[in-house]
Amino acid sequence: MKKFLLLFVGLALLACSKDDDNLNPGGPNPGGQNLDTQDFMWKAMNLWYFWQGDVANLADDRFSTDQEYTEFLASESDPALFFNNRLRFSEDRFSFFSEDYRDLTQSLAGTTLSTGLEFGLTYDDVNGNGQLDATDPVYGIVRYVLPNGSAASADIARGDIFIGVDGTNLNGGNFSDLLFGENTSLTLNMADFAGGELNPSGKEVPLTKAVLTENPVFITKTFNLNGTIVGYLMYNGFTNEFDADLNNAFGELVGAGATELVLDLRYNSGGSVNSSRLLSSMIYGTFTNQLYLRQRWNDKIQEAFTRDDPNALDDFFASTIGGGTAVNTLNLSRVYILTSRSTASASELVINGLDPYIDVILIGRTTTGKNEFSLTMVDDPDRSGAPFIYTQSREANINPDNEWAIQPLVGRNENSVGFSDYTAGFAPDIEQGETLGNYGILGDENEPLLALALQEISGMSGRTSTARQANAREVVPFTHSGMFTPTRDNMYLDKNITLPSLEVGTITIGDQ
Asked: Model confidence at 313, in pLDDT bands (50, 70, 90)?
């Protein structure tokens, strides 16, 4: 007797009911484990994943029987291992998952469990092998303090250094648990940097974690350089819930008569693609007929989107933000952007999107090199036109037995001249790292990176680098506090996505 399992590659499969997704109850299922999560992961990745065509396990013809499919799902009992070991492309550095979609979606909105202290982490390579080992000493350097966390009322500030937590020195083997574990309170053990040496100071700083929402529009101010008004904006995350705040900040700069801009993205690891489009419009102009970016998806999705409209994936500069409010724009012909290794994804999208139109001058260090965007996906296969893509209004439709979410990379953004190959990051025009003992005050004209930008604008030669500074010890973080939130270095697509009716093919299963 023949039995048929239809694996529709496209909406035909994914629009089927949850009952149709049952994993062959009569077939093998070692230990009787619930495979809903693995099933959801495979189906979502098979349709949407950017590298679907490069991963053998995601091939449309990968399975010849439903038994083979079920055994594959059961090959990893842990969904995390299944995602990483069975589905991820080897060159994919950024796709990730969350055991609870609520944690992920709240983080994308800027809400996380935090002390309000943002910091970078670096280490001493005691073994000299160029990599972080479990015994290598780790220390943290405070980048900035959020105004609404416990750190705001503690005796700690930008540039301060800590080497331990609760009396235990940080190292490559314990820093993650001590700093980002389930502990809701911790005490930082501080250190001083003097004479080129780092030594314990004996100072302790107690902190408490709480649910915080960070407004990424951190500093907005202007400088008058011999009659030239220079705007300065420190923007720490592309969070679309704060697009109005971003627009208001540009309104202040426009009102002050700013004709130059220093945009500080050194700690901005990304976020909303649309927020990057709005920010770029606020810098360059509201030219709604000029291309900002063009999306590039996997072959199946690309064909579906562009079959009837070759320009369906084009996004242009914006004239309004949400609700129809007009974009406040400076209409600049150049912009100075402060960067670091933590400058990633949507921040790099701004650099790439503006580059064909205006002079983009980078000051700092080479950026991360993340040129793909992602989508939040949950076990909601019945969403019309966009199966598995999370939307808050459909939370009641998510499989109650599976709260996992995945954040896979699903495409790349090309700029108006078709460029998207910046996986090595964008190198600065003016090199300058941050150094121990000389972090400076953010927004102060003497802060090293901002000072370089102001020197360039004023015509003074500021093209110096850390290497030329005597007795400087540059901080080269291997990670930072933002990397331990669900969003990490994420660039997510936050626009309405509806695929046209599509059925690429079906697979008929042989004799059972």
From this structure: very high
